[in-house]
Amino acid sequence: MPRKANAELLAGCARGEQESWDAMVERFGRLVWSVVRSHRMSDVDAEDVRQLTWLRLVQNVERIRDPERVGDWLATVARRESLKVLSRRKRLVMVGDSETLDGLSGHSESPEQITLRAQRREDAQRAIDTLSEQCRGVLMLALADPPASYDEISTALAMSVGSVGPIRTRCLRRLRRALAAADAGERLPAVLGHARCPLASAHADVSGPRHRKALVGGGPEAAAGQAGQAGQE
User: Fold this and answer.
1) What mean pLDDT is predicted for residues 99-126?
2) Would you give the distance in Å from CA 8 to the centre of its chain?
3) Domain boundaries of the chain, sorted by first residue
4) pTM passes above 0.90
5) pLDDT of 93 higher than 80
6) In this predicted structure, what is the pLDDT of residue 118?
7) For residue 213, what pLDDT band results from cuts at 50, 70 and 90?
8) Which pLDDT value is given to residue 165?
């Protein structure tokens, strides 16, 4: 049986076809998990974000503007929801004691180390946000932990496998320039924070046939290092 295009698969999900949901989760489940795990949050938080990412697709299945790039859409939602969790955790860190800090990080770290790590992640993410939509998508997947394969990036972003490598190299070079500009004190505009997914109740009804299967079961910090390597390529 020929492999269905992303748009065809999404249309099946919109019609409530269980087979399409199964295929969607199989095709993009690892990608979503890689993006979530790249943000280095706790296992509980990571699982919550993964579930929430699929819930967002259930809620917006008929509103995806570019169905062929549904993988990119899922990765973007996973990233946004991860950053929301990290932002909440960062606020807790600012007022927590050392015992709380150790629990949040998963191992013993000083408040200064946690704050510095969070700042590096934010700086790298702001630099990525200044790049084109294509570069944001490629780097978000390429810098996930574990990184998405070229085949996965090709499927998610609807581009040929052969073009992924050259585009990745160009985007890393642009990221290196953006990071250099940030180090020089130039203001980096955030361009991703405007589009928002509709908020959902934590107890949303997802028991229907088209919802049931969807709810199953590196990162930005690595960007600076890989961008530096790209500058030598």
Assistant:
1) 62
2) 23
3) 6-191+218-230
4) no
5) no
6) 65
7) very low
8) 92
